[in-house]
Amino acid sequence: MLLTSADLESIQRHCSHHRPLVERSTHAGCLRCGATFKPAEILEWIPAPGAEGRETPEDTAKCPKCGVDSVLPSAAPVSLDERTLAALRRYWFKDVH
Ligand SMILES: [Zn+2]
Question: How many independent structural domains does the chain possess?
Answer without folding.
Answer: 1
